[in-house]
Amino acid sequence: MSSLAEVARHQPVVISRVTGDRGFRRRLMELGLVPGASVTITNVAPLGDPIEIEVRRGRLSIRRFEAASILVDR
Amino acid sequence: MTEPRHRVALCGNPNTGKTSLFNLLTGAQARVGNYPGVTVDRRVARLRGRDDVEVIDVPGTYSLVARSTDERIALDVIAGLAGEPVPDLLVVCVDATQLVRSLYLLLQAQELGRACVVALTMTDEAGAAGADPARLAAVIGCPVVPVVGRTGLGLIPLRHAIERALVEPPPAAPWRWTPSPTLAARLDTVTAALPAAWPRSRGLALWALMSLGDDELSGIPDDLRAAVATAIGDQGAAIDDEAVLGRYTWLDRSITPLHGASTHRRLTDRIDRVLLHRPAGLLVFAGIMFVLFMSLFTWAQPAIDLIDSGFGWLAGAVRHVLPPGVVADFLADGVIAGVGSVLVFLPQILLLFFFLGLLEDLGYLARVAYLMDRIMRSMNLHGRAFVPMLSGFACAVPAIMATRTMERQRDRTLTMLVIPLMTCSARLPVYTLVIASMFPAGSLAGMSTKSLLMVAMYAFSVLTALAAAWVLGRTVKPLKAKRLPFVIELPPYRVPRARDLVRMMWSKTRVFLTEAGTVILACTVALWALLYFPRTLPADAPDYRTQIAVATSAGDDAAVKRLEGERDGLLLERSYGARLGKAIEPAIAPLGFDWKIGVGIVGAFAAREVFVATMGVIHGVGDDETRLRDKLHDERDAKGRVVYTPLVGLSLMVFFALACQCMSTLAVVKRETRGYRWPLFMLVYMTGLAWVASFVVYQGGKLLGF
Q1: Do A66 and B486 touch (CB under 8 A)?
Q2: Alpha-carbon distance B574 to B599, whole Å?
Q3: What is the CATH number of the domain that holds B83?
Q4: A-chain residues near B240 (CB < 8 A)
């Protein structure tokens, strides 16, 4: 199992688990990043961080630090 | 105006067109107040054509779960807590292109038992892939009205839906997921422990179970906290999982099939391929920031000069009409100059907010945060702090007002605290005077040392501002960065609406004039009085009145000017402000400053550039800057040594770079943080920093033999 931070651009993956302390993971999950959801990295900022992701046909950007706490199945 | 009979709360995710919709629904100017204890605007207005219906604009949010006081506002308004009236109806802005995420908030509101009407925005962008409103309404159990904020299309049906729902509220929607027996038992325990003033609602109990624990909320009764802590035990994450997954499972099953694959982002994606590209995106970014910076720095100047000369003319006219004396001086130099010193900020405020509003509505401001986050974050700053800090090079006042574009209080306060360290344009006249009069000409690697010094002062200010942010963000408790996920939404590029832009610019200006402007005016008048009274000359002074009269009748203008300069210098020297300057001499002597610089520092509190004028008067040369430069250059002490050496000049510039020498900045920080705590903190930390740095420069320089 790897984290979302290690996934290549445009490769769809499915979230298997969200780690981190309670407030941290709750906020990610409330944005739709829940286990079972399909996520694709659509863009990486010119300086390498943050990344833009597509989840549930919506877009949002998170930092690599946050992406690292989202575990995915490839 | 009469008490409203009905209250409607307008809520939704950020970037859903909520503000446009609020403006369209209400039409008239909104009353902008504030929520107690936080710096979030509370905007309220009457529904257009219905004076008995009040509409309140709830700050944009993705969820009602809250960790901090500013995040809790949405719950307070929606549930009618903390003194907020219970709304009769909720209008939920739902972005048709982000349907599932937008509806997550609706589910939370429905769990709290609120009657809702959905305003489906961005339907034009969703196009054919968008959900059918009638089918959506049937699934979510409340009226759904498509609206297009840009054109106002759908506004009348939305008004009708609101008016109908107020007469006959839609039935309460059921919870979309069934809590497990364990969670149900926890909900019952916590419901029983809710404060008496709160409604007995399982929705509120769930809110408490998900929000309380590691939060920073105030005003939560200890009984409730204890009940929640016992109910949660070590199962906090399991409760969150169950609720969030429960809602999303329902949304995925019921909502996702209603809409097709989105195509709306194609244009945005194509633009982003350039604007978020390396290096093209960074170049465009640099170009846009350059234009913004230049507009504040140079384009605002003609308007500023016009205001300056306009008020100068007015002061002259008052002097012409009134007999010379205290009243004329008070009106001309105190009141008129004071009003001028407030209005002079307007060109930059209007320009900055024009650009900010334009970039925000276009969708580019979010991209600025996206592009700059990596750099800004390493200094504990938010990516969105970039534009306010850049604006700080022009003037700290509009820059501090621009921190509003950040959602979190902590990010706003930290940015405000470091903005005044940037080299604002008011420091330039001071640096110019000091460099011209205290430093020898010379050159280094083909550039004159004088211009290199100026460049060095800019670099110094950027470094200190970033370093200060890094240190403050690590040491001052309320400013410490929480390791919380930080989401930047990159909205599709959109065409801004001129009406919303103008409205926003006007509302910022009005807030500045009424709340910060009055404080600035009062301080200007007080400072004027400090440097004006008691208006006495020393007993051994020459009889200036007679001498000036003689020189005037002889037509010797140079002599009149010289005599007036001498007289004004002596009058200022005996003023209360100058006595203050002398009193602080022991404190500033270790920095290499004499009492005359002390008087200049007191005067510069009105605005840094006033230092030059005050130094002119105290040195008896009036407003003649060339003579002032010569005077400073030639000044010798009792033993014939140069008073204003290059070392003194450097120490003075370092002091001006760091000291909080600007009451307008403090007035705006007070307004933006709603209290005296942060402006006082700013005054103390910046002035302390300035003193220490100047001390090190001067004493260190002396040790090194300069």
Answers
A1: yes
A2: 11
A3: 3.40.50.300
A4: 22, 25-26, 29
Same-domain check for residues B84 and B213: no
Residue type, B342: V
Split into its structural domains, chain B has a count of 2
Average of pLDDT values for B144-171?
89
- The helix, strand and coil proportions of chain A, stated in percent and rounded to the nearest 5, come to 20, 40, 40
* Predicted pLDDT of residue B649: 94
CATH topology for A2-73 is SH3 type barrels. (2.30.30)
pLDDT of residue B160: 93
Give the A-side interface with B, CB within 8 Å: 21-32, 34-35, 37, 42-43, 45-50, 52, 56-63, 66
Query: B157 pLDDT band (50/70/90 cuts)?
Result: very high
ipTM: 0.94
pLDDT at B651 over 80: yes
Residues of A in contact with B72 (CB under 8 A): none
| Chain B interface, best mutation among A18, A29, A51, by max B CB count within 10 A | A29
Residues of chain A with C-beta less than 8 angstroms from the C-beta of B67: 23
Which residues form the domain of B86? 6-167
Nearest to B101 among A46, A50, A58 (CB): A58
Residue B437 lies in a domain: no
Task: Give the pLDDT band (50/70/90) at residue B626.
Answer: confident
Does residue B17 surpass a pLDDT of 90?
A: no
Test A58 with B97 for CB contact under 8 angstroms: yes
Q: Are residues B197 and B128 in the same domain?
A: no
For residues B485 and A66, the answer to whether their CB atoms sit within 8 Å is yes
DSSP3 helix / strand / coil % (chain B, rounded to 5)? 65, 5, 30
Distance from CA of A7 to the nearest CA of B (A): 19
Provide the residue count of chain B.
706
Beta-strand ranges (E) seen in B116-224 are 116-121, 144-146
Structural domain ending residue among the three candidates B258, B281, B298: B258
Residues B220 and B128 in one domain: no
Nearest chain B Cα to A21, which residue? B237
Report chain B's C-alpha Rg in angstroms.
Answer: 30
Tokens of B643: 């008073």
Max intra-chain CA distance, chain B: 103
Query: Percent of chain A at pLDDT above 90?
Result: 42
- Asked if B335 is an interface residue toward chain A (Cβ–Cβ < 8 A), one would say no
> Per the domain annotation, does B583 fall within a domain?
no
Domain extent listing, chain A = 2-73
pLDDT on residue B481? 65
Cα–Cα nearest to B437, from B636, B612, B600, B630 = B630
Percent of chain A with pLDDT over 70: 100
Chain A residues within 8 A of B99 when measuring between CB atoms: 57
**Chain A contact set for B276 (CB, 8 A):** 43, 45-46, 52
Show residues of chain A in contact with B210, CB under 8 Å: 26
- Co-location of B144 and B203 in the same domain: no
Average pLDDT over residues B540-557: 86
Mean pLDDT over B275-300 rounds to 87
Query: Which one, of B535, B573, B519, B514, lies nearest residue B328 by Cα?
Result: B535
Q: How far apart are CA B230 and CA B256, in angstroms?
A: 37
Domain end (from B167, B201, B217): B167
Q: Based on the fold, state whether residues B43 and B120 are members of the same structural domain.
A: yes
Closest CB from A29, A34, A60 relative to B487:
A60
Q: Kindly calculate the radius of gyration of chain A based on its CA atoms and give it in whole angstroms.
A: 11
Which residues of chain B have a CB within 8 Å of the CB of A35? 245
Tell me if B567 is assigned to some domain.
no
B46 and B148, same domain (yes or no) = yes
Note the pTM of the prediction, 2 decimals: 0.82
Q: Which tops the pLDDT comparison, B30 or A33?
A: A33
Residue B33 lies in a domain: yes
Q: Tell whether B266 is within 8 A of chain A (Cβ).
A: no
Answer yes or no: do B70 and B209 share one domain: no
- Name the residue of chain A whose CA is nearest to B234's CA: A22
- Under 8 Å CB pairs connecting chains A and B tally to 115
Provide the 3-class DSSP secondary structure of residue A61: strand
- Note whether B128 and B52 are same-domain residues: yes
What average pLDDT does range B559-571 have in this prediction? 86
